[in-house]
């Protein structure tokens, strides 16, 4: 046990200030998860849901944004909260896109859906985004790290990302 404590302490010294930050974040994560809405549904038939969205996308001439992640993922929940609380982003999404939360969890990994739309997506971390055109063709797969700012997201970067994929 003493060796484990020393190893942990040694890792903390090597990591410098990252250790207290990581510990603080780990302690904060359950609180954040309990406070934010849970938009992912492991029980859903994701392909059926996406097929329905694509029919609507054709009618409304909108692209589909799929946010891949799970209710276990603090950054996934933060992004969902952020896009709804940031008026400019919420307005853009509601007027120009159809939006779907594609679940990835131990209960339902949705492997076939991920393979179909973003086979490389799991390498990106969560959340990541899949942009589909009205025909269901994957236009773009986007990681989310470049959209972050501190413990949230950067409005300008998020708007730039979404605006780049508005249906023409």
UniProtKB/TrEMBL annotation:
Gene3D superfamilies: Glutaredoxin. It comes from the Bacteria. Residues 1-26 form the signal peptide. Keywords: Signal. InterPro entries: Thioredoxin-like_sf. The keyword Signal applies. This is Thioredoxin family protein.
């Amino acid at each position: 046990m003493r060796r484990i404590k020393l190893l942990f302490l040694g890792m903390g010294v090597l990591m410098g200030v990252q250790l207290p930050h990581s510990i603080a974040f780990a302690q904060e994560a359950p609180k954040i998860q309990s406070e934010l809405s849970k938009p992912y549904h492991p029980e859903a038939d994701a392909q059926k849901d996406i097929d329905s969205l694509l029919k609507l996308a054709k009618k409304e001439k909108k692209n589909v944004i799929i946010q891949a992640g799970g209710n276990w993922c603090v950054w996934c929940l933060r992004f969902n909260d952020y896009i709804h609380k940031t008026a400019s982003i919420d307005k853009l999404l509601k007027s120009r896109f159809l939006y779907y939360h594609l679940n990835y969890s131990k209960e339902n990994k949705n492997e076939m859906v991920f393979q179909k739309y973003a086979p490389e997506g799991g390498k990106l971390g969560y959340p990541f985004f899949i942009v589909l055109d009205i025909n269901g063709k994957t236009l773009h797969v986007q990681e989310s790290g470049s959209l972050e700012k501190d413990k949230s997201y950067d409005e300008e970067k998020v708007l730039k990302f979404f605006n780049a994929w508005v249906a023409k």
